[in-house]
Amino acid sequence: MNKKVRIINLIVCCMLMLVALGCGKNGGENSSEQKTAEKKALSDGEYTAKVTFSGGSGKARVEDTARIKIEGGKIYATIVWSSSNYDYMIVDGNKYMNEAAVGENSTFTIPVSDFSVPQNVIGDTTAMSTPHEIEYTLTFELVKESSLIIPEIKYAERFTVSEYEGCYLVNIEGENPIVVVPEGMDTPKNTSDMTVLKRPLTNSYLLSSSQYDLIDEIGAADYIKYTGIKENDWYIQEAKERLQDGRMIYAGKYSAPDYELLLSGKASVALENTMIYHSPDIKEKLEELGIPVFVEKSSQETHPLGRLEWIKLYGILYGKESEANTYFETELSTLLPIIEKESTGKTAAVFSVNSQGLIVIRKPGDYISKMVGLAGGTYLPDKVQDMDENALSTMKIQLEDFYAAAKDADVLIYNSTIEGELSSIEELIGKNVLFKDFKAVKEGKVYCTESNFFQETTGICVFIEDLNSILSEEENDKLVFLKKLY
Description:
By secondary structure, this protein is an alpha/beta fold. It has helices spanning 2-20, 209-217, 237-245, 259-264, 280-288, 304-308, 311-317, 321-339, 367-374, 399-406, 425-431, 439-442, 460-471; strands at 45-55, 65-71, 74-80, 86-91, 94-97, 107-111, 119-125, 132-142, 159-164, 167-172, 178-181, 195-198, 204-206, 224-227, 249-250, 270-272, 293-295, 346-353, 359-362, 377-380, 394-397, 411-414, 446-449, 482-484. It has an 8-stranded antiparallel sheet with strand order 5-4-7-8-1-2-3-6, with no helix packed on it.
């Protein structure tokens, strides 16, 4: 009796072991074709995997990437060989036939048991005098899908953006490459010759008012803690208020930063413009102290929309990629109907008068000049020779030269940026009586830019709309950045 009991117990133990090993009635469910992707917490869909290959004579290989499809929780890989001579593959005892057309490289869709475990397969090749089955080992490594939003750059020419080991690689003309590391990502290893910016870029030090406008538009103004612009020099009201209530702190202008304040406040980046090139030692000192420097060059963009497109770069810096891209595309769609209009046939001159009585004009290739063209007009003076070939967007000429080039302009636009706003046509004539003879003065078509325009980079499209309204002789009571002088 005891012997029978021992035999029964032995049989029960054996059965339990078989079940545990998956060799029972349902053991077939553990075959490679039936293992489910839920083990890897992957949903149904298409992915990409790197393929490590070994075995055979080395004359034939498979492509090092494979398309992965997860369907009904099962994982399948599409394998493409470097040869057209494979007619079938065997995986876990099951045969899979070549799916490629005659003459094309052999292609198979096979099941994958587990991404982390090497998989033994057999490939039958007909390349020899008789077919041969050859054993190979394939290992699949799922490629992590990138969450980066790489923007399409349509107009800007001074920067590019690409992906670098899961981070953004930004190349600004004339600067060292910049790696922007998203939150939760490790800094790539090979960055010794690059500027590394790790998000979130809290406590940023901002030196250009035009930068602030773009950053604020995408909802990232709270990242700006320090500025090199005093309250009285701001035309953007919200920036003034931030300085008043302490959300933003003056930390010295670009040529004299308060290093102690920036260090104690853990400034993450200094957002400079090209003025920093006049003080290269300052840039070097900031970097020496561990404060990376970002030099924006939107002012060097010749196309107006190129300047606006820098908002996409600020979207990358502050994790607002979608907001930046959406804003730009919305502005572009609003502007396209104006750009696509026929020319108005009108001419316009943009200028100011400096303290020496010289006329300061925008160069014909400048972005302001191009806005006149986008608005349907012709910029004057358009044939002035640039005697002082420099990077500035403006140049100075004698009033007599300006008179010869622009006295018959349909519209005069006085640039208030440096010399201040005008309040009347008489004030313009007071600068030089010769202005009385200008056609636009006689016809009362003289306008002045509002002082806030050059701090509000996001106003580029609105400014073009203003210009089009004037050149088209439409109602001007809705002008935003231009005011009519009487």
